[in-house]
Amino acid sequence: MNEELEKNIKNIKELFGKNFGSESLLQVGSSVNKDNYNDIDLLIISNNKKDTLNKIRDIFEGYKMSEIDDSIKISDYFKTEISFAIHEKEQFLNRINDYISGEDMPCFHKTWSTGYWLIEGYINDLKNSRVIIDNHGINNLIKLINKTSIYAENKILMDCREELTLKQNMLNKTTDDIEHNLIQQDLFLCSLRTLSLLSNCPLRGFKKIEEKIEKLPNDYRKIIMNLFKENNVNRVIKLINEKLDGVNRLYMGTWQFNGQFKTLTENEIISLLNYAKSKGITRYDTALAYGKTEEYISKSNCRDDIILTKIPAKTKPKQDEICNINDYYTKEYIYECLTKSLKNLDRNFVDILLLHNWHDSWNQNPEVIEWLLELKEKQLVKRIGISLPNNYQKRLNDNILYDIDVIEAPYNIENKWIEKDIEYYKKHNIEIILRSLFLQGKMLGEANNYEEYIQNAKKFNTSLVIGMTTIDQIEKNINCVRSDENGTKEKRNKYKL
Questions:
Q1: What pTM, to 2 d.p., does this model score?
Q2: Residue 122: how many CB atoms within 10 A of its CB?
Q3: Whether the predicted pLDDT of 472 surpasses 80
Q4: CA–CA separation, 392 vs 415, rounded Å?
Q5: Domain end point (choices 244, 260, 285)
Q6: Which residues neighbour 148 within 8 Å (Cβ) at sequence distance 6 or greater?
Q7: Would you tell me how many other CB atoms lie within 10 Å of the CB of residue 79?
Q8: What is the CATH number of the domain that holds 268?
Q9: What SS3 string covers 36-51?
Q10: What is the mean pLDDT of the chain?
Q11: Potential cystine with 465: which of 141, 249, 251, 360 (Cβ 3.0-4.6 Å)?
């Protein structure tokens, strides 16, 4: 951050310290950690928006000031333009909660001093914000929203799909030239929003559209630039469908490849992995304890996809005994295991790293989580989490939930205890992965109930780990989880899908 910017932020902090008692202040937008910026965007979290607006008007009276909706722009008080947006505390917290849960997220264009503040842009600004004054526990909230929410992203994409489908139908029916142009504009902006989300580059709004299009991957750039000439709206809808397809949340389990369950040759395993990828599976669940499965993945076409691996405890903890974390995991041991996994996978990082074994004694001690966070900070791991054992009945503490991204838990006829906490964990922006649907294969003989077990787990809208050792199983599992292939209407009603 340059000296002039730092000086301005210091002056703003002092100004707020003198005039505001309980507001929180965040720096957002292009000025955060960037030397190249046009203005300074600030977000005020207020207990009373009206009072805060009046205070700002009084403080900057006599200076060049413009107001738009809930934002105020000050042009000549500092050497650079300052824009304040004001959100009341409840409004702020509700919007974050709606995003994390993937429930009701109003995606209307909210006026902001730098453009339209779409929900994904709003959240992205918060993820990258700099907290200047914190009177509302903002730093903990930033931790929470910095974790990727697949539920929120999927909800936005569903809204975009609905909008694109609706507007395309309207376009096909209209004979009015002005209406035609307006609908095309909406289709273009919604398509751009979709492609930006899919390329992990969320829009704040629709200013400087040319610059935003240039940031898209080449294939997406071609789609948006030829949106109407080549009827690419259908292609955008297809991309959404592929992303929302249940396969997006299906992890191919690889425990069966360790030789204990079914003997397969290395070539057979690699062929199965490649076949799964060709059918749309892009997530793989493995572990250091699964024999050579990590190496098999590295030799397949899947090595650059989303890989979840796990670090085993030195010995498996007994759940009915008090266990000292240092007897099972140490900082050095975790790093050593990860190094082995990275070598096996032939990668510089893993997408998801879980502790393979967990004990309730460690629920009060976040030390082990801090070790994982260090790996995350070193960019050796993108996301971290915990694999919960069978019959684990306790809820993880909030001090742990704020820092982890993923929880993997068994879900089958013998282990349904996770049901009561799924929604609670989702509110902490945690991806839930359900495993052992068939009790490690013990229930696979009940062919008639195969789909039923998957659909019963699928109703929670979580991710699923399913082991697959044949092409037929891959096909069957994909068909079972696809969002558009949930079986008959009767079955959908039965499982409330």
A1: 0.72
A2: 25
A3: yes
A4: 9
A5: 244
A6: 383, 405, 429, 431
A7: 10
A8: 3.20.20.100
A9: CCCEEEEEEEECCHHH
A10: 85
A11: 251
Q: Is the alpha carbon torsion for 386, 451, 283, 192 positive or negative?
A: negative
Kindly indicate the confidence band of residue 487, based on its pLDDT and cuts at 50, 70 and 90: very low
Q: Identify the domain containing residue 76 by its residue range.
A: 3-129
Hunting for tokens 């007897």 — which residue is that? 327
DSSP code per residue over 119-132: HHHHHHHHHT-EEE
Q: Are residues 293 and 424 in the same domain?
A: yes
Query: Are 106 and 161 found together in one domain?
Result: no
The region of weakest confidence among 193-202, 263-272, 278-287, 480-489 is 480-489
Question: What separation in angstroms does the CA of 259 have from each of 3, 104, 256, 270, 299?
Answer: 61, 46, 7, 14, 18
Bridge partners for 27 per DSSP: 42, 130
Residues 235 and 269 in one domain: no
Residue 139 lies in a domain: no
Question: What burial class does residue 18 get, using C-beta atoms within 10 Å of its C-beta: 0-12 exposed, 13-18 middle, 19+ buried?
Answer: exposed
> How many domains would you assign to the chain?
3
Supply 299's token pair.
Answer: 């030799």
Q: Are residues 238 and 250 in the same domain?
A: no
pLDDT category, 16, cuts 50, 70, 90? confident
452 and 398, same domain (yes or no)? yes
> In what order do the strands lie in the sheet containing 130-133?
65-68, 71-74, 81-88, 39-46, 24-28, 130-133
Residues in the chain: 497
User: Rounded to 5 degrees, what are φ and ψ at 137?
Assistant: 70, 35
Say what the pLDDT of residue 342 is.
97
Q: Which two tokens stand for residue 55?
A: 């205070």
Note whether 302 and 398 are same-domain residues.
yes
Tell me the angle at which helices 331-345 and 367-377 cross, rounded to the nearest 10 degrees: 40
Q: Is residue 156 part of a domain?
A: yes
**β-bridge mates for residue 45, sequence order:** 24, 87
Domain assignment present for 460: yes
Contact call for residues 368 and 400 (beta carbons, < 8 A):
no
Alpha-carbon dihedral 20, 26, 30, 34, rounded to 10 degrees = 100
Q: Residue 320's CB: how many other CB atoms inside 10 A?
A: 5
Mean pLDDT is lowest, of 189-198, 373-382, 453-462, 468-477, for: 453-462
Return all residues near 237 (Cβ < 8 A) that are at least 6 apart.
161, 164, 165
Q: What is the rounded (10 degree) CA torsion for 17, 18, 21, 25?
A: -40
Pair 181, 250 in one domain: no
* Token digits of residue 75: 């042009």
User: pLDDT tens, 99-137?
Assistant: 777 665 554 434 333 334 788 888 888 888 999 999 888
Average pLDDT over residues 335-344: 97
User: Does 193 fall in a domain?
Assistant: yes
Question: Has residue 30 got a pLDDT over 90?
Answer: no
Distance (Å, rounded) from C-alpha 1 to C-alpha 8? 11
Q: Which residue has the tokens 């879900």?
A: 411
CATH of the domain at 62: 3.30.460.10
Q: Which two tokens stand for residue 139?
A: 């730093």
Domain end marker among 95, 129, 163:
129
